[in-house]
Structure formats: structure tokens, C-alpha cells
Amino acid sequence: MDKLVLTGGARLDGTVVTSGSKNGTLAIMAGALLGKGETILKNVPSIGDCRTMMDMLRALGVKCEEEGNGVVRIDATEISATEAPYELVKRMRASFCVLGPVLARKGYAKVAMPGGCDIGARPIDFHVKGIQTLGAYVNIDHGFVEAECEQLKGAQVYLNFPSAGATQHIMSSACLAEGVTTIHNAAAEPEVTQLAEFLTKMGARIEGAGTSTVRVEGVGELHGVEFDMPPDRMEAGTFAVAAVVTMGDVRIERIRPDDVEPFALKLRESGAIIEMTENTMRVRANSRPMATDIMTMPHPGFPTDLQQPFAAMLAIADGTSVITENVYERRFRYVNELTRMGADIKQDGRTAVINGVPKLTGAQTTASDLRAGAALVCAALAAEGQSEISGIEHIERGYEKMVDKLKSIGAQVGVVPDEQEKEAVCV
Questions:
Q1: Helix (H, G, I), strand (E, B) or coil at 241
Q2: Catalytic residue flag (residue 64)
Q3: What Rg do the C-alpha atoms of the chain give, in angstroms?
């Protein structure tokens, strides 16, 4: 397998333009199954997860073509298959969310239990119970979820936890249900709002997206539309951390200020200088970051997807920081890799105590999941010497052209096949 090789010590300076939102795009591509006619999606990121979702749509008999330059055409007028194959669903959890739209369109759907990054139990209970509340009969057997109904019916749905994935899934399913569906304790993540904007453009009637109560009035049919993918706030956060750990000066273009505010506040606490405009964020750091505590929570709390990159920053902070992970219990699997680089981190359950050290040193590490990979990249940028990161297929699932973007702002980074000498690429 290929490796990412980085030589730390370079100060990052320049401009990065964010790609389309990974999490938002995946939900929107699943939602496109609800509409008849052609949907044209723009600014779709060229990443592994989006390619997996395109393969999923094709497996369902939907026309799906990638034109290049971030344009994807989807025509779900005909859905000729109702079973989502295991070999696709096991790659990525978000592909499970085709269940509701296919069920709403065809009256039957069968989807394998989801896979994706191993960051802890992410039960599908909320998804299944929501669809059952809408009137579907659901059977779980031999690793598959099978659902059928004559017609989904509007209902009152309460989520025990404001899950973004479950909110998106139930909201999509309810668009073609008969009557009104109200989702209580709904997630307020920007990706939920983005999906609601897309579905509304298709003809859905949705109110309250972005609040704890979402109301969906079912309609008889949705139609294809053109839609521009929103910017990826997690990519913006990762490059912001990279700027801080290298004491750099990075301008991040194509952001939504409200979306990035939760982590921007924490960056400011760490001593970063941040200037925000309507669609850009400039991040500068003149000294070693200061320690700060982080507690991940649903939006507008601190996003769990940026917990790991921030841990890499706090590993070199002045003082002691505490991270509390409230969303996924196994999201500290990267800790051992950071300690290999000299970090002082003590983890117990959902809490990690980080005693900042003056410097990290390059080491051979392995990315266990997407955001862990982002953390190792940030740590390697700050470390003395050269680092190797294996498992970069995880990083490629969610970051478009990360190596090229890092190089453009001064990082010494490259990718080589496992068997080649690492010295050949650090230029």
C-alpha cells in the first residue's frame, strides 16, 4: 500500500480552496434517489466516499455519470434494483441512507448493515425506528436490513440523540410519505440544513431544518434539480490546524462563517489569529499554541470530526488540555500513533488528557480512520524530521487532493508506493 511521507518544519503560507462537503454530498446523493428526472450536482469532491456512493447508485440501476470538474449527473427516474450490495455498504456507513429513499420510491428496500471507519458503535437503531414509525415493516437478519411498506405515513418521530445521519435519513424518507412528519430532537448540523435546501429545491416541503424540530409535509413526487455542493467545514478545520501547528499563515477560501465558528472559537483560545470574511478565513499563529479543553457535541458544539486534528495541535501546546469525546467512544484510536511521535497523552474511556510537549519527532505511523489520518498529517507537519503515514486510503476517502493542496502552501510531502525509498518524494 502507498504511504504518505512528510518532512516537518516547513511554515505553511498561502491559500487553500475547500472542496465540496463530504458529509453533505453523501446525504444529498442519497436524497437524489427521491427525484424523477436528471439532477446535476456541482462541486462534488473527487474522493473515495463519493465514488463509493456513485457505485451504489449505479448498483440500484440509477444513471450516474461523473463528468469531471466536480459535476455529477444523476437520473433516478427508474430504480431497477432495490438491494444495496454488501461490498459497497461495508466501505462506508453513509451508503446505508439509501434505504429510506428506495423504500419511499419502490415500497421495498434491502440494505446491508453499514461499515466505514471503525470509531465505535454507531447504531442504526435511530434510523430503523424512525422508518418503522413512518409505517414500514423492518426485518434485520443475516447482516441485512429489509424494509417494506405500501405507503409511508407521516408521524411524530423522537430521536434519543440528535444524530445527523438519522435526521437526514428520516427527513428524506418522509418527503414522499402521506401526511406530516415531525422529527423531535433533530440534529442541527449544517449538513442537515444543506440536505433540506436540496430536497426543498426538488419540491419537498420542509420547515425547521437547522433547529431541534423538523417538520416535513409529504408530497406525491419530487423532481431533478441543479445544486452546488456546500464547502467542507472539516477540511477547512484541518487546514486551519495545519496553519497553527506550523506557525503559518493560511487563507482558506470558500467557507461559511457560521459553519466554522465552533472550531474557530477554540482556535482563538489556543492563540491563533483568525480573520473572517463572508467566505474566507485567514488563520495565523506566531507562537506555540496554548492548551485548551475540548468537548465534542452535536452542532453548534465542537464537531467530533475535528477532535483528532485538534489533538495533534494540543500535543505541542503549552500546558495541559483535556478532550472529552461525547459522540463516538472509539475515536481515540489514534492516540498510540501520536505517542510514537513523542506526544504525552493519557486516555481513559471517552477522555484524553494531553500534556503538551515542546516538539514532536517524525515516526512511522498508521491511520486507523479518516480523521485519525488527518491528525497524523497535522502532527507530521509539526514534527522534527520525516514521518511516514500508512493507511492513506482512509485519508483519500474524505480529503480531495490533500497532498497537492499541502504542497501548494509549502509543505514537504509526497506519496510513494510502499516498496520505494521515501527520500525520493520529499521535495
A1: helix
A2: no
A3: 21
For residue 334 the three cell numbers come to 489514534
- Mean of per-residue pLDDT scores for the chain: 93
Catalytic residue from among 50, 97, 117, 175: 117
- Three cell numbers, residue 96: 446505508
Q: List, for residues 200-228, the tens digit of each pLDDT value.
A: 999 999 999 999 999 999 999 999 999 99
The domain containing residue 106 runs over which residues?
22-228
322 contact partners, CB below 8 Å, separation of at least 6: 293, 294, 351, 352, 353, 354
Q: What is the pTM of this model?
A: 0.93
Q: Do 8 and 121 reside in the same domain of the chain?
A: no
What count of other Cβ atoms lies within 10 Å of the Cβ of residue 296?
Answer: 21
Q: For residue 30, what are the contacts with CB-CB under 8 A and spacing of at least 6?
A: 53, 94, 95, 97, 98, 101, 169, 172
How far is it, in rounded angstroms, from Cα 58 to Cα 342?
46
Do 345 and 209 fall into the same domain?
A: no
Where among 196, 228, 260 does a domain terminate? 228
Give how many domains the chain has, as a whole number: 2
CATH number for 328:
3.65.10.10
Please check whether residues 174 and 305 belong to one and the same domain: no
Q: Does one domain contain both 131 and 97?
A: yes
pLDDT tens digits, 276-334: 999 999 999 999 999 999 999 999 999 999 999 999 999 999 999 999 999 876 678 89
Estimate the crossing angle of helix 125-133 against helix 164-174, to 10 degrees: 20
The answer to whether residues 217 and 241 belong to one domain is no
Domain boundary among 204, 228, 252: 228
